Amino acid sequence: MRPSPSSTGRVVQFLGPKPYPPRVAVCEPTSSHGGRLAALVRGRRLWFIAFLGFFMISTAWALAMPFGGVPDEGNYITRAAGAGRGEFLGELASSAEGAGAFHHVKRGLMVDNMCWQGNAQKSAECGLQPTGKDDIVRLHTTAGRYPPAYFAAVGWPLTIWPTWTGIWLARLIGAAIASAFLASAMFAAVRWTRHPLLPAAVIVAVTPITLHISGGVNPNGVEIAAGLAFMVGLAAIALDRRPTAPPAVYTLIGVSALTLTAVRPFGPLWTLAIIGICFVPTTRKRLRRVLTNRRVLAWLAALAVVLIASVTWSIAVETGKPGWVAAMDITPEEALRVELFGRLQQYANEMVGVMSWLDAPLPGLAYVAWFMAFGLLFLGGFALGEWHYRWRIAALTLAAFGVMVIPDALNARTYGFYAQGRYVLPIAVGLPILAAYALGERRALVGTQARSIIRTFALLLIPIHFLALYNTMLRWQYGIRWPKIKVNPFHGEWLPRLGPELPLALGAVGVLVLLVTAWAVSSAVHPAEPRTDDQSDADDRVALASSRAATA
Predict the structure, then answer these.
(1) What digits encode the pLDDT tens for the residues 105-129?
(2) Which residues of 444-466 are buried (b: 16+ CB within 10 A; e: fewer)?
(3) 318: left (phi over 0), alpha (psi -120 to 50) or beta
(4) I need a labelling partner for 100 at 20 to 30 A (CA). Which of 222, 415, 502, 538 fits?
């Protein structure tokens, strides 16, 4: 006999054949909230629309940039071309040879002459172009000791086409992987939690540098995207008061954790840091729930294997073996003063975006806009959050900046100042996520307030992605020559191979798609109120009994 609505109360909407109740989403399209626009976030459409927006902007970057348009791309292309033809570990080079390794690649990719990188006054016109020559040469790369997973995934087109075609395909494969993780983070923030500010947190977390790096051959873009997806997914089972989650949550957590661990040498550290931030402290009840879940145990076993393999690789091949160095006559104390009083602001700017080879900063107000949006979440979450959220936010902040400042200061005498803000983005993206959870638990800024914040953040921040693309294209095409600033992106000393019109159009449409996505999400926000664990348990038992009765 099917139970009546009065017997099940507000959980009657969960009735269905599945053995456990689906989680209440942040955004649930209804006739009163959102209409047709809110319907865009129903089901899997949200993921595909978000993926399209992120991928189009990343593709715009891939088509707009010259060879070596993102840091170390020439070295990464050589590493990827070697891995693509089965050389997962090349011939190791000595420190005198620059460390790294030698790979055998097609001569057409031997074009990294480094003539404009780091010199903002020079356009990319002086750079060499891939020639398409098929004969094999032995080529050095400083990335030759890096873990091979990312390079094997993107490198196979380079073994077939040592031309712009191969480079574009390699870039687009990486862009697609990163965009899939970013879309999954947005989907998880909307569909798998009860915290209406999480979509706004994802908008803040996806900074222009992430999509810029994702558009080039550089594992850092995939690493940042996987870190964000891992943080949002893990928080859904570690911090959310709802104890149950659909199987897809565990799949997202597992895949993103494995990817984050495998793509870069610091991956194991980032993975363990995110796990620690989410589960310290926690309750025995929650920990028992998680560790008795079969899916969690399976993914933990896989993660342990990948983590051990990644650490073993780094130790065995000496991933951090020094090559060419930029020694400085400076003491650690002096270097620490430089870090604290000079480079902290630089790190913050780089987390938002200093494009190209740190030679194409955004217009100053773009940083102000991003810091204001981040500050609203960060300070609000810290000020209003419960003590354990304050601890998590403070610990993650200190970890993110400490990983840059302390090693940089200690090694400045040997290596110079080498750290960049984007290096710690795989964990720093968790700060707005934690802050949104903290505000959600306090029931602060929910309902129409959350809707307004999502829309404000979308209108303020998402167009900056196009501004970053436009501004950096000008830098590549003309160079930055004060006071004679060029503003016409359709001309220049250097132009993208397919012309400037296509990347500009893709970037504009990608921004529009993300704006529509954010507006649809905001249109469906309802004032969800987190419940206590005991209330959640009681509601889950009622919903489960109702579901079984409905199918009896």
Answers:
(1) 999 998 877 899 989 999 999 998 8
(2) bbbeeebbebbbebbebbbbbbb
(3) left
(4) 222
Beta 91-92 vs 136-141: how paired, if at all? unpaired
Q: Which residue has the tokens 């706004």?
A: 200
CB neighbours of 282 closer than 8 A, spacing ≥ 6?
238
pLDDT tens for each residue of 497-539: 999 999 999 999 999 999 999 999 988 775 444 444 444 444 4
Our measurement of the distance from residue 149's CA atom to the centroid of its chain's CA atoms, rounded to an integer in Å, reads 17
Residue type, 213: I
User: Half-sphere exposure of 229 toward its Cβ, with a 13 Å CA cutoff?
Assistant: 31
Strands (E), 268-413: 354, 360-361
- DSSP-derived secondary structure letter, 339: I
**Is residue 1 pLDDT above 60, yes or no?**
no
Residue 494 has pLDDT above 80, yes or no: yes
d(CA 427, CA 502): 33
541, exposed or middle or buried, with CB in 10 Å at 0-12, 13-18, 19+? Answer: exposed
Task: Judge contact between 51 and 43, C-beta under 8 A.
Answer: no
Rounded Cα–Cα distance for residues 134 and 200 (Å): 48
Nearest Cα residue to 44 out of 247, 188, 236: 188
Supply the pTM of this predicted model: 0.89
- The Cα 263–Cα 274 span in angstroms is 16
Q: How many residues does the chain have?
A: 552
Strand partners, 84: none
Dihedral in degrees, nearest 10, Cα atoms 346, 504, 205, 188: -160
pLDDT of 536:
43
Mean pLDDT of the chain: 87
> What is the three-class DSSP state of 245?
coil
Q: 137, 47 in Cβ contact below 8 A?
A: no
Residue type, position 33, single letter: H
Look up residue 243 and give its two tokens.
Answer: 């104890």
What are the beta bridge partners of residue 140?
Answer: 102
Look up residue 431 and give its amino acid.
L
- Which residues are CB-neighbours of 449 under 8 A, at least 6 positions away? none
Instruction: Report how far residue 523's alpha carbon sits from residue 232's, in angstroms, rounded to the nearest whole number.
Output: 21
CB atoms within 10 A of CB 536: 17
Cβ–Cβ under 8 Å, residues 245 and 236: yes
